[in-house]
Amino acid sequence: MSISVKPIKRSKALVRFSQEHHYNLLLVWKIKEGFRHNIDLSRISDYIIYFYDEDLLIHFKNEEADLFAILKEDHPLLIRAIEEHQQLCAIVEKIRIDKYNLDLIKKFSELLEKHIRFEERLLFNYLESKYSEMEVIKIGEKYKGKPIDASDNWEDKFWITKK
User: Rounded to two decimals, what is the model's pTM?
Assistant: First the structure.
């Protein structure tokens, strides 16, 4: 028996952010592939730092500035999202200092995956129910176009092993 899981249909305001979440989940997968192939931790750390600087930090700032703007400061979903953004940023700053720390890299990977699942399954669904049609159009227009993919310019594709 096969179970079919339908992808979540996103409003135009959130499509770009969901697409970027796809690239962020690919980062998690690449980290896991690095572990699986015993890649030197500094190579994985360098990629995390690059991806964070070129993609993830921008993604967080855009979410906080535009998507989360309709939530009140004390809303529990907003509080969780912001706290997790801050935790992820703090972990990356520690990785910059200690590129061989397996626990930090794992913690980053696990929290990023958990955070994306939270935003996609809970926060984004809630936001879609609260946005007016005009707000959806406005945000959708602002973020129209190709989502960020920092991996396009990274040369050390450690997650691809040659057999």
Answer: 0.88
